[in-house]
Structure formats: C-alpha cells, structure tokens
Amino acid sequence: MTITKMSWRPQYRSSKYRHVFGKPATKENCYDGVPITRSVHDNHLCTVNPRFIAVITECAGGGAFLVLSINHTGKVDPHHPRVSGHRGNVLDIKWNPFNDFCIASCSEDTTVKIWDIPEHGVLKNITVPRKELQGHSRRVGLIEWHPTANNIIFSTGYDYQVMVWKLDVPEQVIKNPLRSISVHSDVVLSMSFNTDGSRLATSCKDKKIRVFDPRTGTLLQETNCKSHKANKVLFLGNLKMLLSTGNSRWNHRQIALWDQEDLSQPSYSEDLDGSSGVLFPFYDPDTHMLYIAGKGDGNIRYYEISPEKPYVHYLTEYRSFLPQKGMGVMPKRGLDVCSCEIFRFYKLVTIKSLIEPLSMIVPRRSESYQEDIYPMTAGNKPSMTADEWIGGLDKGPVMMSLRPGSKLDSYVELGSGKDPTDSMETQHSRSRPGLSLLIQERLDAKEGNARKESPPTSLLPSTDEKSSSTTYVSNGQLDSMHCSPPKTENELRQMFYKQQEEIRRLKEQLNQKDVRIKQLELEIKNVRNSQANL
Residue 409: is its pLDDT beyond 60? Predict the structure, then answer.
C-alpha cells in the first residue's frame, strides 16, 4: 500500500538528530571569485574530497574545471591554473573514492578523461590526461565510480548507452568499454549504486526508474508509475530501498520511496512544493539522514529514514537567501568530528561567484568524540580489484572509524544482509576469552535465529602478518590487544574496568537485538495468521 502525504508535519518523534542545524562558513572560509559554469545541465557541478575541491568553470573554447586545495579559502585568483584538456564543455566531474589525487571528467566532446592531480595542487594548466575513454557517439553527461572495486568507472551519454570501463590497462586511449548497456530509451538523468555495487539504479528522461545488474547489464526492475515522474534516484544504503525526486501528476515537486525488489508502486510519496527546480537528494547511510536540496533554492530539507512505516520522518529545514546551482559533498572521513559535524555541503552560489561550505552539526555540549553519531563508515580503500569484480565477486566497502588516531584496517561485508554490529560483537567476543559465557551463548542463539531467516554471510577481518598484535573491531573503532600482560597494578585495574564496560555495552546491544528479533517473529506470525484467515 502506498503512503502519500502532503508537506504538513506530524507530531514530534524522538531522535538524536532532531536538533541538527546548518552552520554556513564565514566569508573568509568560503571560496570567492570562482567563475562557476553557466551550464543548464542538472548535475552537481562540484566534487570534494579531504584534500581538494573541484568545480566546473565557465570558459571559452573548450571545457575546463578548477581544482583548489581544500584549505585555499578566500579570494581565488582569476588566473588560477585549470584542468583544461576537453574540446567541449565539461558536464560532470567525480573524484576517485580510493585516490584523492585522481579525478574523472566527461564532456560534450564525447570523451571521459582521467586526470592525475599533483600532490601540491594544480600549479600550471593541465591539458594531458592519464587516460582517455572513447566509446560514446554523443556527449557524455554522467560518470560514476564503482563504490568498492578499484579502477572501474561507469559513464552514460546522450547516445542512451551506459558504458563500463576498466582503467588498469596499459593503453592511454581506451576505445572499447568492458560492456555497453542498452536498456534506456532516452537520456539517463542520474545513476546510483547500492552499497556493494551489485545493483545500479538509473532515472531516465522517459520518467522511469530502472534497476539492473551493472556487471551483465541485465534489467531487473523498471517502474511504470504514472503518478510520479522521476528525475533523480538514489539507493538508500542497506535499507533495500530507493529514493527518487521528481514531479507529481499535478507538477508538484515530489519525493518517493520504492522497494528495490518491487518498483510497481512507491511505498511512500510526499509533495513538497510547486517550484520548478530539480531536487538533489543526498543520503548518509551512517545516520540514516536524507537531505533534499533544490536547484535554485536556498533551503535544504532534511529527514530521517527508518525501515518501518511511515519510513520518512521530517526533521527540519535549513534556510538561506543564497540560491544554490550545484552542490558538492565532503566524504565522511573529511569531517570535523570534534565539532560533531555529520555532513558538509559545498554550495555553488552563481550570483556571487561563491562556494559556501555548509556544515550540518549535532549540538552536543561535550567536546570529546561522540561514538553514537559516528559509526564505522566507508573508507578510501577498495575492497577488490577490477578483475575480481569482473569475475563475479561482490564485496561491501572497507570500513573505518572516524575516531582520531584509529586506522583503516577492517573488512565488513555490508551488502550481504548481516548487521555489522553482529559481526563486530562476534569477532570481539572471540578475540577476548574473558567475555562471559552468557554473552557467547546469547550470540550463538541469535546467530541461530538469523540463520533460519537468511543465508549465512561472512565477516572478513583483515590481518597484518607483520604485526605482533591482534586487530579487532570494538565499539566502532579499531584497537590492539598486545600479548604482553599489564605490568603494574594500576594498568591491571584499568584493563579490568575497561573490560567490564565493554561487557556491559555488549549485553545492552544483545538485549536490544533480542527485543528486535521477538518483534520480527511476532510480525511474521501475524502475517501468517492473516494469510491463513484469507
């Protein structure tokens, strides 16, 4: 059954993100004097990583984009060197998620180009790319890196083709893609991968959403809904749901939620307003927060997404008089965790030639690291090679802790359907023989219940053979337990208190999951009873 709502707000619900607020950067911390492109293409036009910010610029006689150091705030030199190797306007740019010095661009000249950015930034114009991908017959409008496989990139253009490219080949000019996917009847408007990259969702100018296997090109799902005309689409992490923005039958701007296994009708839809600008959706899988920013608007709405009805819970809205033309988003590993920053936008304000950083902050009094709002997040290490992905392997991202000083050292199979917290608890309990038998028995019982409902999945922790210590995931961070015993009574006492606290926390988590299992079992029983009555 579809849930449809107008934009009036229901009663409050308890949430740690209820009071999240947007904090724009001061003038000296903005990027001023940036000649932002006047292109009408509905892309983000900006891409960010912890080292650089790149933005498509206006230029004559070809296409170019600007790459600035993330700390290069203030007035930008109008003659700042650019990346300018395209013969037509640049339409999209994306940083490699596994290499902060590698960026891809696509253009009206029908090519995709891969660029290497020097460690100290762009000091002179860059005109020669590392790789040039030639395969499209018309201009290329979108590019997207695979989220977990190294050296795999997808492109789509006005020839209606989605092309898959492998970059770790000796040729500088690549003319033949790995695969060309022909399932669209019009221009593709957006692309989005699920967490492990085993599914690719697209929205198309024919107003349909399609989900297909990116490796084989097999079409798995397609919408045929007349009440929602999709423009942008987004996978919502591991919730097995899709979020689309577009227009309703009465041309109101609308968001809709879909079950990725059944695109016949949206599970939820909500009309927002009667404006005409495209709605850009951004989703944070760590906090389950959804941000909706309209092109030409100054405001950003944000919501919390839950797996149960009514799915979408409105939080509040950031308002500004400065309209955004495009938006860049900082990866989670580049956020300021000391100020409880959970998301950061880079707003392109064309009327002022300005890029304005906007931090979304959870108000907390304590200045210490807030474990509950920074769970393990996707890092900057690929979980497999291009050949492994081509061979049929799917892996979740390599996870990292945002705690200052922690290391990126653990594989967690997020896309496999197993709760990462379960994996952390299980591995942690096995690595520490001092945990109580009660916890181990309840873990085993919980794993047995999980096996009844879903196939077994695997946790693949990384091990460092050169290290003498054992690395394990604990409480959202990576610790090391050395073999040497505590040398003093004080150290022994501290270790005892630490273990007691960890046991208490694990018991609490297990109790919560036991309650959740009982709820699910009750729901299954109710469904079976209702089916039997029919």
Answer: no
The string of pLDDT tens digits covering residues 294-324 is 999 999 999 999 988 889 999 999 999 999 9
- Please tell me what DSSP assigns to residue 352: G
Closest CA to 198 of 64, 389, 408: 389
Token pair belonging to 211: 């989900």
Phi–psi pair at 512, nearest 5 degrees: -60, -40
Give the model's pLDDT for residue 4: 52
Sign of CA dihedral 107, 110, 114, 120: negative
Write the burial class of residue 26 (CB in 10 Å: 0-12 exposed, 13-18 middle, 19+ buried).
exposed
Distance between CA atoms of residues 40 and 296, nearest Å: 11
**Which token pair is 372?**
């509950």
Query: What integer pLDDT is reported at residue 12 of this predicted model?
Result: 55
Answer yes or no: are the C-beta atoms of 59 and 82 closer than 8 Å: yes
The partner residues of 259 in beta bridges, in order of sequence, read: 241, 262
DSSP letter for each residue of 170-187: S-SEE-S-SEEE---SS-
Tokens coding 294: 């309209």
What DSSP assignment string belongs to 402-468? -STT----EE--GGGS--HHHHHHHHHHHH-TTS-HHHHHHHHHHHHHHHHHS----------TT-S
Token pair listed for 532: 């039997």
pTM of the shown model: 0.75
pLDDT at 332 exceeding the cut of 90: yes
Q: Are 125 and 85 in contact (CB under 8 A)?
A: no
The DSSP annotation for 318-337 comes to: E--SS--SEEEE--GGGS-G
CA 352, CA 339: separation in Å to the nearest integer? 28
pLDDT per residue over 423-468, tens digit each?
Answer: 333 333 333 333 333 344 444 444 444 444 444 333 343 334 333 3
Q: Beta-carbon neighbour count of residue 286 at 10 Å?
A: 17
Residue 80 has pLDDT above 80, yes or no: yes
DSSP output for 19-85: T-EEEEPPGGGSEES--B------S--EEE-SSEEEEEE--SSSEEEEEEETT--EEPPTT---EEE
Q: Is the pLDDT of residue 204 over 90?
A: yes
Give 39-64 pLDDT, tens digit per residue.
888 899 999 999 999 999 988 777 89
Per the CB < 8 A criterion, the answer to whether 5 and 266 are in contact is no
Q: Give phi and psi for 373, each to the nearest 5.
A: -105, 0
* Residue pair 300/289 in contact by the 8 Å Cβ criterion: no
Which whole-number Å values give the CA distances from 359 to 24, 29, 131, 330, in the listed order? Answer: 6, 12, 35, 10
Contacts of 197 (CB under 8 A, 6+ apart): 146, 147, 148, 149, 214, 389, 394, 415
pLDDT value at residue 407: 61
